[in-house]
Amino acid sequence: MTMFKSMAFAGTVAALSSLSFAWSINGTVSTKAGQPLEGVKINSFNYANVETTSAADGKFSLVYDEVGLQVVQSVKASVQFNYNVITISGIKAQTLTVSVMDALGKVAFSKTQHNVNGSVSLDLNKTTAKGAKFLRINADGNRGTYQLGKTVTLLKEGDPLPTIMFAKEGYNNLSYTMKSFTEENVQITMEKASSNPTSSSQIAASSSSAKPVPSSSSVASSSSATAEIIINCAGKTYQSGDHKMSVNVDGKNRTFIMHVPSAYKGDKPVPLVVDYHPIGGSGQGQLQGTTYKSLTDPEGVISLYPDGTTKTMGPGWNVGPCCSNDDDIKFSREMIKAVEEKVCIDKQRVYATGFSMGGGMSNHVACFMSDIYAAVAPAAMDLNKTNSAQCNPERPISVINFRGTADNVCRYQGGDSGFNDGLNFLGAEGTFQFWAQKNGCTGSPSKNKDGCDEYSNCKDGVKVVLCTKQGGGHEQGNGKVGWPFLKQFTLPASFVK
Known about the structure:
This protein has helices at 66-69, 200-207, 283-289, 293-296, 328-340, 357-368, 385-390, 428-438, 479-486, and strands spanning 16-18, 23-31, 41-44, 51-53, 59-64, 78-82, 85-101, 107-123, 134-139, 142-148, 163-167, 174-177, 182-190, 241-249, 252-260, 270-276, 302-306, 309-310, 315-316, 345-355, 375-379, 398-404, 415-416, 424-425, 446-447, 453-455, 464-469. By secondary structure, the protein is α+β, with helices and mostly antiparallel strands.
């Protein structure tokens, strides 16, 4: 973690200390009889890479450390105060934004400089930063938030309250949504599972026994267009940044963020990536947590971060019996159509990805939007029995799934979710075999260059891939593998409207 120094500062602000976390929770897990439970796996449903296990006395502590998760190797900065002047030195960045915020997180002053190699100074006497409480430094997308005075938690606008998941063999899974960003001594009680639960291992065995259907015909590869599509980019330049937008779907205002990178010039068609958030999350949260944006931005790719709607456990997606009452397929179509009117999108290169329930949604759209999406890259959630039973893609579609063997939110082996939401998953292997069957893949899968299992002999030149992380938990997908996979595929020209 970058170390920061502080000096005296005029007024009531006395010191500069790092906000080393965005949220934290600790407490005890026990049985209904009050006995402490050891070995309970604990993580967050809507924040990746945050997990722990309860100790012998049932105690646990979970911390989301934004700075710790985004260590800036190339930036060795120090921050100093000299009365009203803040000096940040040791900075090397193409784009540096320094913001001063009040106690509510509202930006009172912001300054952006390019090609910084050295130091930047802010004189608060010359700004409107009255009541300044926080300093945020953003160097090429790597953020650090620091408090002027006593340490408190502060999340970025739009970040959701965490939902914490508790799982242990022999006990019903339990979810707990935090009521504030710092909670202490939380008491969690877990109930023993019924004596005859549905065996997830049996489900995995049955779901993975499906045999791929041999290809009955030879069609032109979906990875190359059968005809040239002419797209007129006239008038479709757009200011870079994160633009909050909305579309009306069935009388409801549905919102999303359109991210336009600085590399987008509007002079040629570019790919579009739709990135779906986890349950309890938001488009803003997924924009900040995705592993794809840093890879697609230099290529001028437009990315969208839609907001789900709430049915039970917070904003989610309608992927069968869970977790929204709204038509998210229709919303996705209307959102993409609205964006295509504003920026120059290559309609043959529209892709979907997502994390957790967003991974479930990106599997879901492969079933019901194969006429729009060229390929999908779900992470941390499989198809469930309800939507897989209804799945009928209009064409073969390339799919790469990212899964962790130790995921205790969406178990690798599949089965009932354990959260009374009606979701019963095919499992990672079951979903892999399902897509192989749907896409008419033949032969056996082999290891590809990334160490993932891959069916490459499928209809229309599509591929089906499963990237398994041994010991991996509930995590975002690997954009360094996912993006190169996605962009090799294009939608057949016959589907372009």
